[in-house]
Fold this protein.
Amino acid sequence: MELSIQNKYSNSEPVISIRGLYKAFGDLEVLKGIDLDVFKGENVVVLGRSGTGKSVLIKIIVGLLKQDKGSVKVLGQEVIQLSGKDLDALRLRIGFSFQSSALYDSMNVRENLEFPLTINFKHLSKAEINNSVEEVLDAVGLIDKMKQMPSELSGGQRKRIGIARTLILKPEIMLYDEPTSGLDPITSTEINELINEVQQKYNTTSIIITHDLTCAKETGNRIAMLLQGKFLRMGTFDEVFDTDDEQVKSFFNYNFIK
């Protein structure tokens, strides 16, 4: 059973629109005909166990993988039909926060943040780059770590810097891949709060991929529960888990930390 998608964000055209999406790897069917709309300013959590196809979904959204069947429109463009140049242009409007943070170990924090700006916006002055670096470091609360190397940061700090490096390009869409994975409960709460702060400050539209129920509850305006290649339940956190479905109840009972 899938619940209504109607919510306070759904008064406009969806920023991401997915219809009839299928993806298999050989005989392994990963996505089996999923539909999803994500609206401007909304945080949607795609919730499911490891190996259920959550990361495959966001790789298709950014064109790193091609679907077998179905439609994926992002910011009004059919991703699979884009040329390499147009796909690169679309990706500049999408921020991808990797599970590993994906920082360059040989660069300090400032250099890690400067790098995407100097690669993509060669016209920027040194002052403009400095302002951008300071703005995003302030946004993630790590302005004092500018000269630190990644190896000198905690896991939570690396996650924050990874988010800052994504924000520096001012994306319209944020994709978070397991943002609390490997973090202790206190640091996880800080990252969840940061995701919500990014939504409010930058008016981003976000998909948050997670198996962490606390993350889902704290960050998701809407939850889409992915099970066996399909969205089994969709709605607010309470709506998704207000069911007698044993598959959903067992997921809740096993995973949730109050």
Observations:
- Strands lie at 16-25, 28-38, 43-47, 69-74, 77-78, 94-97, 173-177, 205-210, 222-227, 230-235.
- The chain is about 35% helix and 25% strand.
